[in-house]
Amino acid sequence: MDAEIITSGTELLLGEIVDTNSTHIARALRAIGVNLYYKTSVGDNVERMAAVLRQGLARSELIITTGGLGPTVDDVTREAVAQATGRELVLYPECLAQIEALFNRWGRTVGENNRRQAYLPAGSTPIPNPVGTAPGFILETEQGTIIALPGVPREMERLMQDAVLPYLRQRLGDAQVVIKAKVLRTVALGESWIDERIDLLMRSANPTVGLAAHTGMVDVRITARAPSEAVADQMIAGMEAQVRARIGDDGIFGTGTETLEEVTARLLAQAGVRLALVESATGGEVARRLRSPVTLGRSPVTLGRSTPAGAAVVTAGHVVDGPEALSALLNISPAKLAAFGWISPMVAAEAAAALCNTYEGGWGMAVLGDVEVHGDVYGAETGQTCVALATPDATVVRHYPFGGDGVIARTWVTLRALDLLRRQALAQPTK
Ligand code: ATP
Question: Could you tell which of 23, 46, 65, 152 is best to mutate to test the pocket of ligand 1, judged by most ligand atoms within 8 Å of the CB?
């Protein structure tokens, strides 16, 4: 079944309210396998509402509207549906009785404007509204079905649950399907890099494979339509194996709503790692994401809540604002800083190695980026960052052509530092 949603209300077009109704309806339709192809918002105007309804009837089997069922003249949905389908508005005594009962309870009499709410396009099936005055209705016509729901989210959700979903399930019968999705989370791979590797898979019709990019991360969403949950799971598993084979298992740090910091802290804890950190441009963000207190100079500052995994892993988190502070903290010779520059693979490696000895058998990480660059990664001046991770066995150093205090640069660097820790932790035996 192909559907579309029409939300009515001038305040939606003015940007005064956010259209949360269509998100709710879209999810509900997806869950029962109804395809949603269009979503339109229209103001409180009968002619324009009727026009989008006609357009909808010409291309979709099902239209769900929200809003415009209230008692006032700018509540145009009933009239617009009547116009679009060439029907009269007729009084539905059972709707009037419900409205009267509600008003009686409130000790009021029903005025002319509230009586309007009991007039529905001829041939409609009313949907009683137990949580408001506006009844919804279902109108089946030869061109398609229109389901009109109130705009107030609480009322719309109640009518969806009580009446619309049971109605649609019954109509779908055997055509009802389960739609399941799984998200694979990647970091530091780049959307176009992933796209090149899985573009063939992204052409699959079922399961579908889609990408969603966030700063420094890309999610791969696999969605399957199937007659049962077990079949959907099988289809997702098959596609997941192909995605993993193409982009590399280790590039996928987690699934669903897992975060990189959670996964990294967990892996480090499992490997029994004790980590000491020094950061410059990231301002303690790596330590904070691992949920550990950081030390500015020598005084500890608690940023964020400690979790058992993060707190047990990070033994020290320092923030430095330049080469002098770094030299004072870790005893790195000023001559070396002058010779190589404080943001250099050499100095980062030495800082990480010095921190490595903070705790017997521990790890040290230095995230050293330009603190004086204030632009972001797309500006003329993009800065530099060196990240070094020292373990008792080896030191790994990465040099990035971006840095500074811009939000994107800080996020990119933080994610890369966490990912370096994660990859290194993955390679450790579990303790
Ligand atoms: P009622 O008669 O119960 O007021 P109605 O069908 O006339 O309902 P509207 O007057 O269009 O609905 O909207 C009522 C309120 O519901 C709006 O002021 C707004 O707060 C909320 N609302 C309407 N449409 C949406 C939407 N698409 N998403 C979120 N909220 C909405």
Answer: 152
At 191-218, the pLDDT tens digits run 999 999 999 999 999 999 999 999 899 9
332 is written with which tokens?
């790195």
Q: What's the one-letter identity of residue 60?
A: S
**Arithmetic mean of pLDDT, 254-261:** 91
CB 8 within 8 Å of CB 40? no
What pLDDT was estimated at residue 360?
Answer: 77
Per-residue pLDDT, 337: 93
* 67 Cβ below 6 A of ligand 1: yes
Residue 205, SS3? coil
d(CA 219, CA 209): 10
**Residue 7 in contact with ligand 1 by CB distance below 6 A:** yes
Expressed in angstroms and rounded, the spacing between residue 151 Cα and the centre of ligand 1 is: 3
Give the pLDDT score at 134.
86
Q: Which atom of ligand 1 is nearest to the CA of 44?
A: 11
> How many Å apart are CA 160 and CA 136, to the nearest integer?
10
d(CA 136, CA 128): 7
pLDDT value at 8 more than 50 = yes
Cα-based torsion angle of the residue sequence 203, 236, 61, 96 in order, rounded to the nearest 10 degrees: -150
Whether residue 89 is predicted with pLDDT greater than 70 in this model: the reply is: yes
Angstrom distance (rounded) from CA 267 to CA 224: 30
| DSSP assigned state of 161 | I
Q: What's the whole-number mean pLDDT along residues 269-273?
A: 88
Output the pTM of the full model.
0.71
Which residue, 83, 38, 30, is CA-closest to 59? 38
Residues facing residue 398 across a β-bridge: 387
**pLDDT at position 279, please?**
96
Instruction: State the Cα–Cα distance between residues 384 and 368, nearest whole angstrom.
Output: 8
The closest of 158, 155, 94 to 125, measured between CA atoms, is: 94
Q: What is the structure's pLDDT at 300?
A: 47
> What is the Cβ-side half-sphere exposure of residue 416, based on CA atoms within 13 angstroms?
26
**Residue 153, phi-psi category: left (phi > 0), alpha (psi -120 to 50), beta (remainder):** alpha
C-alpha–C-alpha distance, residues 247 and 240, integer Å: 11
Q: Is the C-beta atom of 420 inside 6 A of ligand 1?
A: no
**Do residues 102 and 111 make contact, with C-beta atoms less than 8 angstroms apart?**
no
Tokens read off for 9: 């209300």
